[in-house]
Amino acid sequence: MPPPKPNFLKVIILGDGAVGKSALMNRFVNNKFDNQSFHTIGVEFLNKEVKVGGTTYTLQIWDTAGQERFKSLRTPFYRGSDICLLVYSVDDEQSFYNLDTWKREFLYYADVKDAELFPFVLIGNKVDLPKHEVPTEQVEAWCHANNNMKCFMTSAKDSINVDQAFNASVEKWLTSEQNLDKQMKAGPNYTNQVNLDKHNTNLSGNQQDNEKTCC
Ligand code: GTP
Ligand code: MG
Fold first, then answer.
1. Using a 6 Å cutoff on CB, does residue 67 contact ligand 1?
2. 95 within 8 A of 15, measured Cβ to Cβ
């Protein structure tokens, strides 16, 4: 019998200042949006229960400060994360270009052993705004280059795709756990393969079995 899966998951939200990380957490946990939010200093967390695949999980969601000056306050909290949500804002192309740095910083400070298996989800927030600075093809190419990372275009303001992004991150975590189990059973000669989960966005443009969420 395999050991029971833990159902307490630490979810960390990373991305530049003002991309809407706190707004996403507040929309997801409290179903609220505040136009006048303050920059986060360090980290804050909230818990929320979700049911995915018939199992209830408690997500402990860590909202971090995106501003560079708070780096030393946020990085000690990366360790022990089960899921990482990388956020950029669709009206701010620099926040998209900085995603590589965010991912690298996370892998380093969280001391992730297998970067390919770690469950990341990309979020392009503020889709309610008319200005979209990052072309769809560029987002798709980035996801493709990053182990076919799943991507959700959200609006914390208008409550678009927020629940879907969080729920999908748990599904991604489940898939990664299953792949880790397979690796352990196969022993040391196992070749490192990443199975895309069945809900993943097909980056050649064909959405598989759920509604199109990316771009
Ligand atoms: P730091 O805490 O500094 O890292 O920023 P943050 O990423 O937590 O951003 P925050 O959630 O504080 O949002 C920054 C600004 O963007 C606020 O004025 C929000 O009201 C606004 N905002 C957040 N999400 C959305 C959205 O989906 N649409 C629009 N139009 N504005 C948003
Ligand atoms: Mg914040």
1. yes
2. yes
Sheet of 43-52, strand order:
43-52, 55-64, 8-15, 83-89, 120-125, 150-153
pTM of the model: 0.88
**Is the CB of residue 35 below 6 angstroms from any atom belonging to ligand 1?**
yes
Is the CB of residue 106 less than 8 Å from the CB of residue 112? yes
Tell me if 196 sits within 8 A of 171, measured CB to CB: no
Q: What is the pLDDT along the chain (215 residues), one digit of tens a residue?
A: 555 556 999 999 999 999 999 999 999 999 999 998 899 999 999 999 999 989 999 999 999 999 999 999 999 999 999 999 999 999 999 999 999 999 999 999 999 999 999 999 999 999 999 999 999 999 999 999 999 999 999 999 999 999 999 999 999 999 998 888 887 788 765 554 444 343 333 323 333 444 456 76
Distance of CA 100 to the CA centre of its chain: 13
What CATH number belongs to 8-18+75-213? 3.40.50.300
Best residue for ligand 1 mutational test, from 40, 64, 89 (most atoms within 8 Å of Cβ): 40
Print the SS3 string covering 45-57. EEEEEEEECCEEE
Q: Is 19 in the pocket of ligand 1 (CB under 6 A)?
A: yes
Q: How many Å apart are CA 37 and CA 28, to the nearest integer?
A: 16
Q: What is the DSSP string of 176-187?
A: HHHHHHHHHHH-
